[in-house]
Amino acid sequence: MTDSKYFTTNKKGEIFELKAELNNEKKEKRKEAVKKVIAAMTVGKDVRYTSRLDFECYLGSFHPSIFYFFSQDCEDPNPLIRALAVRTMGCIRVDKITEYLCEPLRKCLKDEDPYVRKTAAVCVAKLHDINAQMVEDQGFLDSLRDLIADSNPMVVANAVAALSEISESHPNSNLLDLNPQNINKLLTALNECTEWGQIFILDCLSNYNPKDDREAQSICERVTPRLSHANSAVVLSAVKVLMKFLELLPKDSDYYNTLLKKLSPPLVTLLSGEPEVQYVALRNINLIVQKRPEILKQEIKVFFVKYNDPIYVKLEKLDIMIRLASQANIAQVLAELKEYATEVDVDFVRKAVRAIGRCAIKVEQSAERCVSTLLDLIQTKVNYVVQEAIVVIRDIFRKYPNKYESIIATLCENLDSLDEPDARGAMIWIVGEYAERIDNADELLESFLEGFHDESTQVSWLKRTDVQVLVNSFFSFPHQDSDNPDLRDRGYIYWRLLSTDPVTAKEVVLSEKPLISEETDLIEPTLLDELICHIGSLASVYHKPPSAFVEGSHGIHRKHLPVQHSSIDTGESPVSGGPAAAMDQPHVIPSQGDLLGDLLNLDLGPPVNVPQVSSMQMGAVDLLGGGLDSLVGQNFIPSSVPSTFAPSPTPAPPAVSSGLNDLFELSTGMAIATGGFVAPKAVWLPAVKAKGLEISGTFSRRQGHMYMDMSFTNKALQHMNDFAVQFNKNSFGVIPTSPLPIHTPLMPNQSIEVSLPVNTIGPVMKMDPLNNLQVQDSFKCGLPQGSVLGPKSFILYLNDIFAVSNILKFIMFADDTNVFFSGNNMDEIIKDLVNVKGLHIIYSSLILPYLSCSEIWGNASKTNIDKLVKLEKNNL
Amino acid sequence: MMISQLFILSSKGDHLIYKDYRGEAGSDVIDVFYEKVTALTGDQPPVVMSHKDLHFVHIRQGGLYWVATTTADSSPFSIIEFLNRLSGLVKDYCGSLSEKAIQMNFALIYELLDEVLDYGYVQMTSSDVLKNFIQSEAVSSKPFSLFDLSNVGLFGAETQQNKVAPSSAATRPIQSSRDPGGKSEIFVDVIEKMSVVIGSNGVLMKADIEGEVRVKCYMPSCSEMRIGLNEEFSVGKSQLRGYGAAVRVDECSFHQSVQLDEFHSHRILRLCPSQGEHAVMQYRLSDELPSAPPFRLFPSVERDSAGRLLMYLKLRCDLPPKSTAINLSASIPVPRGAVSLSQELSSPDQSAELQLQNRTVFWKIPRFCGGTQLSALFKLDVPGLSSASLLEVGPVGLSFELPKWTGTGLQIRFLRLSPVHPGPSQRWVRYVTHSDSYIIRI
Fold it and tell me: Signal sequence span per UniProt (chain A) (predicted)?
């Protein structure tokens, strides 16, 4: 007789039978019936009725008695029964009954049998999920904490697991009171408990911040043996702890280096599992390699792709291979990549070819070899290989301009076989870039132009940049007929440029291109550091922080790598406390040039500095999408600039006189010399950080007064005005005694010298003296051209221009605003226009006020008014 | 690591086992999972899939989907490891892994699930500890067969057959060994996986061996077992012991039940095996194989005057003459556009075929003795064959099985049980090397 019969019963009236059997007097029968119910539930049949009835009769009428039985069971001499009772009680997820649970649970937490205690520890977590308040009130958390010191490692592991989970919903409370004693207990339990318990304990350890490198080292020493554990999850958890604590160890110590060596074999061993495990391992190794490439630099061969690896494993391996590529192993890597490029799988082949290009860009010495490898591949004439190779060669040209142009002839031979937008774009770029060296460049381009309408947008953009350099007569053609507004707008921009000022246009289009970066898809360092803290978890597989995919119900607090403590505070430490605190946090604004944004600014100011369209992934999404929120209230860029002052944590003897010391002594009335040393002016705020405003300055003392001598230089393209100065509360109590004496607007390229008298009578901030000076500038309105926020605020300002008039129709493009006014015929239009007092009046009476009230200045020279009569529309 | 739900599905998506540990999601996610997993294409990593804020981690064992769900940022590694362990446990308890075995033993499996996980935390997965808590008896699906009687000689005499265990011997439930009639047996398997890359110039570019020693124990009361490895076995590059043909591995790891006090001096693993199957030791060797790679290929690829592609392949087996490779299959990628194949093979038991959709020629050799050489001539009709398409030939991949042979040379010197078991007990030691990826570039 087997249990499978429960799956086969499928009669009508079965539920009634079940009910009857459940109420049967014979124990055997009841057991059978329960099995049947479970089987039915598993298959997904609707047995809710029976089971609910079952539960109702248990929870309803026998309410008190069932808990009597439970608590009786908790007293049972057999520990198995006691544990079972506790476990079952925790599974009844009904809020009302929790109070009946407390007493038995409290007893079980102190039970003599470890099996009961470990079950009870988990039960606390269950209870916390149902009723968190009660768990705290009843003091179960303290009992849990006591269990960390339990003699049985299994109990410790469960207590740690339960506490870790509970503490996740209380991010601020220090539930898992990790102190050296507790850590010691955990480390002792680590050696004895089951593999799963070890994982809990290791994960918990990774949240601990050792106070110094000695403690970190001793923990590492005790964790290291876990690296040779057979369970790869234990290994990975141990790797996580070690990776985190490596941050704290001094880089030059012997132990640091031995530890690095010890980390490599277990990581390699992780790759011996099933493809699924390999994939997870590779995702983690990818992070580790980005953080500390030295661990695996000797092991590159392990990441060579096996022929029968699934494609997702192959791609991950390829990625890691490139990251590990260096001058030492590049020959080997290239030989492998060349092999891969002849494999069957098209996707993989493409990635392999791309990888060759990344090698060339990463390891300069190998570039020549890479190029010749690519040329070999082009000779195979396999279509997708050729196309991919051309894209890659374009990147190599960008990295090493004017170095390998001898191969262009070979590339041009393959012109006809290109049918993918990417490859065509790349080829056009190459032709455009090296137009002087290719005799028939314009013919080649012309042949591309014929297919213009069929091309995808991306190619067309690229084509534009090059075409216009050569023959701008082609140019009228695309911009008139193109449907794509973005493309057409771009056409307009270039067309205007070309028609008004060819010299500028040449400057714009042929301006220096940003060099291609060496590592293209590196994870941003702060994210990488956070992910390192999550090695082995889902976050490391998704390469996303947990906050991105875990429901926020548990307040996940971001984990950070520990920071190495050192006795001398060298780095710039942000001012803490005081009203200035919020402003002092360095706010990183993405520095990649938002090219589209620059184009947008074209209508607001003279276009001089528009960079070459060089980024392939440029999209309007970035511009129009997010980022607006970041604009609100943040139109200043704080930046901190180390001053020239010598670090003086303690007042230095006057002989070593630096500007600050002089100042300091003066304020205490102990001036020794007049006209002491004045440090030369140093750049406090470089122009790139402050949208073109450069501030350099120093402190000096004249006639017993302190002065802050500054020179302001406007390196932006617009004038600046409304200067003001404000000092954060500082440890010397320095405040300005008069407002900043700059009253005239600062014109572009103008610079102005000011001397600001300062005094030390201001409020003193009780803190260690800061050894650097932090300067930030703020802008009251508008943004200098070229700043990242520029285009966004422009859109923000202009977005409600619709509201100024209901006669006018506005069509707004990313970079251009057209005002339309339409009528049935010319006369009517003119009449209407006269009624509204003429075009210029419309402009000056409606639009200008609008603009000025939002403090935007229209650039009249860039505003053109066309009176083209086309059909029945007037284009204003 | 918090597992929210755990379920087992048949390959057709039938629900076999479903257990909810934390009440975070309904049982409807089972169907969501099945839809997702069947919609996966080959190039998508199947490991972690997400649905809303639920994440599925699954493995496939015995033709079944073993799935765990989680809502937190759990470790997929632990979950995969746990699922593998669970499937091992179920196999140990039920004898085999199949839809039928699971259906027949579902009560036992629910009982197991209750013990191994509590509120989603893994508690224990050692069959030794678990047997204290599991009350159900396993039901074996194996029908009574005359084959089982073949081990019993006439009048109960020991037969020669007794020396070789039937392959089914190792698939039976552990609990049945409680029965007095059950045989007490122990199997120690040394299994190695070999991956080799040989360059087009015949140079060995890469050679890795991943191996493990697996113990399968059906002893009702085995207190201690000692496994002696080769005495000259060494771990790590620096640790060469003496000279001569040392058996060396780069790295090895051990099951946590293994006592290593005698390992360093005498290369003896001491352990108290729990019932069921586990990997006692895992090891890895890269690059420096003690012997030559087992197979070498001498290819010549050319275009004949009629525009056909000629491939003349000579394959040599460098194993010692006593060893034999079985089920050898060579796959040779050929240029796209190949339409037909004609072949000349050196012996009649070999076969070859051209699979057009993979554009690959498969050359199958059922047995291949050490020290011998086989050859094959393939003629392919490829319309529009160019010299560039000759580059598309290769690399050749070999898959094979080498019974009674290990690439590292690891041997089990002895296998001692103490105290000596009173009843009849059987100890089996088996060796096998599989090809993981054996690539010869052309």
Answer: none
